[in-house]
Amino acid sequence: MKIVAKKIDVCVEKTSTGYAAFVESMHVYTTAQQIPELYMNLLEALNLALEDEGKQVTMDQIKLNLDFKQFFQFYKVINANFLAKRIGMNPSLLSQYVRGKKHPSAKQSEKIIRGVQSIGKELADISLLS
Question: What are the phi and psi torsion angles at 59 (to 5°)?
Fold first, then answer.
């Protein structure tokens, strides 16, 4: 099987029972109660959809697209107030994005994403001493 070379954009929506994910261009849809389970269901559904083409998807090819409210609800470990101060944004403005009261511009979205990715990289590079 040939591994798909590009990322597959997946739209994710919060539902009353968890999450729904879909890739319209491939007619792939799945649901799950939690994000880790959603990844596994997506991997299975995408691989089934690509099986006849002799292609395969790995977790690295799946790119979830969540809105800010969903992101901060699931990844509660990221404190929006801390993030806002770190990226030089008004904490109350970021809070409005997180609650879905306002929607960020493309420039503001990029600033927030870069901040989250920067924190993620720092955390990935840390070694804890026992």
Answer: -60, -30
CATH 3.30.160.250 at 2-65, yes or no: yes
Residue 62 corresponds to which tokens in the numbers above?
A: 């799946």
- From the list 70, 4, 67, the residue with the least C-alpha distance to 26 is 4
Look up the pTM and report it.
Answer: 0.75
Contact (Cβ atoms closer than 8 angstroms) between residue 103 and residue 94: no
Token code pair at residue 41 = 């269901």
Query: Where do the domains of the chain lie?
Result: 2-65, 68-124
Residue 10 near residue 20 (C-beta atoms within 8 A): no
And the tokens for 121?
Answer: 């990289």
Predicted confidence (pLDDT) per residue in 55-107, tens digit: 999 999 999 998 888 888 888 888 999 999 999 999 999 999 999 899 999 99
